Amino acid sequence: MSRSSELFKKYFFTTISIILVSFIFLGSALILLVTGIWKDEKLDLLEENTVSITSSTYGMLTSSYMGQNSRGAIITICSNLTQVSDAVDADFFIINGQGVVVYCKDLLDPHGLVGTGTCFIHDNYVIPNEIMQTVASGENFRANGDMNGLLRNNSFIVACPIMKDGAFKGAVIAVQPIESGLVPYILTILRMFLFASLFALAVAFFMAYFFTYSMIKPMREMSMAAKQYANGDFSSRITVKKRKYLRSRTEIDDLTDSFNSMAQALSGLESSRRSFVSNVSHELKTPMTTISGFIDGMLDGTISGKEKDKYLRIVSDEVKRLSRLVTGMLNMSKIEEGKLDIKPSCFDISEMIFTTLLSFEQIIDNRNIEIRGLDTFKENTVNADKDMINQVVYNLIDNAVKFTPDGGCIEVMSKSDAEKAIIKIKNNGKGIAPEEREKIFERFYKVDKSRSYDVKGAGLGLFLCKTIVEMHGGSISVRSEVGQYTEFIFTLPKQ
């Protein structure tokens, strides 16, 4: 099983677990809420009926009918208790001022007549002091409990006092078991919630699967692409389809873009590396072959004594070429490791340019290249690392000489303002295309990939020039017109 599948399962089941826990919490909160509301409604209903019975009982007890026909009045009171008890499924009874039950529905026989005058259920009731104290003060009592063990189950208890001329005469008490009404009510609510929840959960499962798959898909593609990158294939890219339900970019989109940018950079780096290896191999092989051939010719006598000096100079030039190549690679390595230190000193950069041009005198003369601008040179002092700046000047002049056609011209300029020295080296020739200019300062990049002598190099010169100039706080740029000219301009702070 792949890691991406494991990640999908982990995210999916985590999401589903959160949804299930949320529904359980919601169901519990709903049950608690509706239970509280149901209890309040039941107590309100009991209290309303208790107050009604209290009013009717008080009227009956204080009426003349009670004195004329006490048995009929008692039957009327007990019948009223029976009707209300049956209507609301509760037990209503009346106590006197001492807390003894005097009237209840059980005093009537099946024919609706007063029986023996005793009740086997209520005669044993001893009303708790808490209830008696509340109703004796003229206030209604509301609570739930078992009346100190008198009731079998936890019940709603409501008591309403019967007052006459401000004196407590008795109370009407209503008792209703909680479980008998609450359990069916909760089961009904729970059944409705479960049916609704099943539908909602089905939709939630589908949406969780869809969103999780959509979220994990780019990661799965990244995992597969990373394996290809590890094998040296950098062609794969991650494509994320635009999701209509998301109006803005997400972190996954940013991650995908970063991943593709990384792949592009790795691809370019790999291409540069291969080009570098190829270039360096060629640049090392050519001078070494030349050196080896001329030295072997001197040793075996093929090259006579009169010609040795000529070929020794060629060998010397090739050795210097190798030295520059190795120095460039060492400097690049030091730059990447942050170990290339600047050792500033004051020197005349105009003189450095003139001296560097002299080192190319033979090639310039042989190819009939015209040098312009030297007559305008003035002393131009900068405070910089002389060896590093010499490498910049040498590389730019070397490039100008390489790419200037026979009979062409190279124009140099050295001037300054109050803050910086400005150096320009311009040569006519085929120029540099606009798309090439953006890459020309990248390491290992070569505008001309051919292997002719005129364009030899490993693609490090301009990269080192840019790095060295910027290390000094300066800037370097290139201007060119295809088929006309190429001009490099760099500046160095005077301090």
Cα distance, first to last residue? Answer: 64 Å
Number of helices: 12
Structural class: alpha+beta
Shape: rod-shaped
Report the order of strands and helices: HHHEEHEEEHHHEHHEEHEEHHEE
Strands, count: 12
Strand content bin = 15-25%
Spatial ordering of strands, largest sheet: 2-1-5-4-3
Question: What's the average pLDDT?
Answer: 81
Q: What are the low-pLDDT stretches, counting only 5+ consecutive residues below 50?
A: 449-456
- Percentage of helical residues? 55-70%
Largest sheet: 5 strands, antiparallel
The whole-angstrom Rg is 52 Å
Which key features would you list for this structure?
495 residues, alpha+beta, five-stranded mixed β-sheet, 12 strands
Structure in words:
A five-stranded antiparallel beta sheet has the order 2-1-5-4-3, sandwiched between helices. A five-stranded mixed beta sheet has the order 7-9-10-12-11. Strands 6-8 form a two-stranded antiparallel ribbon. The chain has twelve helices and twelve strands. The protein is rod-shaped. By secondary structure, the protein is α+β, with helices and mostly antiparallel strands.
Layout of helices and strands:
Layout: H1 3-61, H2 64-68, H3 70-88, E1 91-96, E2 101-104, H4 129-136, E3 141-145, E4 155-164, E5 167-177, H5 178-230, H6 251-299, H7 305-337, E6 344-348, H8 349-359, H9 361-366, E7 370-372, E8 381-385, H10 386-403, E9 409-416, E10 420-428, H11 434-437, H12 461-471, E11 475-481, E12 485-493
Parallel strand pairs: 7-9
Antiparallel strand pairs: 1-2, 1-5, 3-4, 4-5, 6-8, 9-10, 10-12, 11-12
Helix pairs in contact: 1-3, 1-5, 5-6, 6-7, 8-10, 10-12
